[in-house]
Amino acid sequence: MSEHSTAVDHLEHDLEHEQVVFANDPASGLRAIIAIHSTALGPSLGGTRFYPYTSTAAALTDVLALSRGMSYKAAVTGLDLGGGKAVIIGDPAALKTEALLRAYGRFVESLAGRYITACDVGTYSEDMDVVARESAHVTGRTEAHGGAGDSSVLTAYGVFCGLRAAAESVWGDADPAAVLAGRTVGVAGVGKVGRHLVGHLVEVGAEVVVTDVSAAAVDRVRDEHPTVRVVESSEALVASELDVYAPCALGGALTDEVVATLSARIVCGAANNQLAHPGVEKLVEDRGIVYAPDYVVNAGGLVQVADELEGFSFERARTRAARIYETTRNVLERARTEGVPTATAADRVAEQRMREIGRRAIWLP
């Protein structure tokens, strides 16, 4: 089967999305896909991932899943935004240029505000400043240009808030600040978000074990936090004795094999789309592991860049991100009372808001 037919099959079987745009600019080398999943609650907002996908079909699969997750993330977090995402195909180290980013910005602008972009894997606030030279629909910009700067700061803070809520549900504690003290937390991926999460965990007395494919990322965390222990691979981390497993790299971390191996009582991390396939959430539940749904706990970055739409205030955004603690508690409680996996409970919360509050037609500026 050709790559083209595989991509078409993806679209034929994915009827949820409002709009999927293929963006190509041969002069700059841009090959991108922008996916708008839903504008039921408002314009779609989501980051731009710059990644060397093996094929257009692989990029399409990723952007469809990521944009759907953004709809649910915005809804469960209480934002008046829909879900969108973009992927640029290629190695950013080799292909990222001003010409390419500006070409991408023109495609974003052509959507007239139905999609608002931001940073993601492979893109940074400085890149968004370049994109913004061609489009008004850009967030995640540098502080020098009135933006929020690095959204990983509040992404990590939100994950930490969600982790506290999950820990309290499992272990309880009269002193919420102490519930993670002495617990062993394994963090897979210590890049932009994972590094900040490690800092929060060390601060409250957790024992932290980390791994990353980047030796530089590991060295940076070890320099900042000498007590952190390092293992060589994700497989070694999963096989370790853990209380909490925090996947903070790319998606698909919770496979059947990983769930069968984990000793952790809690899975709570920043990675998107952690469930490798439908049904994994039931395996997690059957093993007695509490899964804090990824899009619930990693919404801090979305909160941060969304705040730019009002004129950015870090304190206001941090206060909003702190509500992820209560949102996580509510999702875990709903899972218990309705007898469903936590991922199902989170979906129900998001879908209820989109159904009861959302528009009955697509959003137009």
Explain this structure.
There is one protein chain. The protein has 16 helices and eleven strands. It is of the alpha/beta class. It has two domains: 3-69 and 81-145, 3-Layer(aba) Sandwich (Rossmann fold); 152-353, Rossmann fold (3-Layer(aba) Sandwich), CATH 3.40.50.720. The strands form two sheets. Strands 8-7-6-9-10-11 form a six-stranded parallel sheet, sandwiched between helices. Strands 1-2-4-3-5 form a five-stranded mixed sheet, sandwiched between helices. The longest helix has 22 residues, at 56-77. The protein is globular and about 55 Å long. One of its GO terms (molecular function) is oxidoreductase activity, acting on the CH-NH2 group of donors, NAD or NADP as acceptor. Residues 149-360 form the Glutamate/phenylalanine/leucine/valine/L-tryptophan dehydrogenase C-terminal domain. InterPro entries: Aminoacid_DH-like_N_sf, Glu/Leu/Phe/Val/Trp_DH, Glu/Leu/Phe/Val/Trp_DH_C, Glu/Leu/Phe/Val/Trp_DH_dimer, Glu/Leu/Phe/Val_DH_AS, Glu/Phe/Leu/Val/Trp_DH_bac/arc, NAD(P)-bd_dom_sf. It comes from Nocardioides silvaticus.
Layout of strands and helices, then pairs:
Elements: H1 3-13, E1 19-25, E2 30-38, E3 44-51, H2 56-77, E4 82-89, H3 92-95, H4 98-110, E5 115-119, H5 125-131, H6 152-171, E6 184-188, H7 192-203, E7 207-211, H8 215-224, E8 229-230, H9 234-239, E9 244-247, H10 256-261, E10 266-267, H11 280-286, E11 290-291, H12 294-297, H13 300-307, H14 314-322, H15 324-338, H16 342-357
Parallel strand pairs: 3-4, 3-5, 6-7, 6-9, 7-8, 9-10, 10-11
Antiparallel strand pairs: 1-2, 2-4
Active site: 85 (proton donor/acceptor)
Protein name: Valine dehydrogenase
Binding site for NAD(+): 189-194
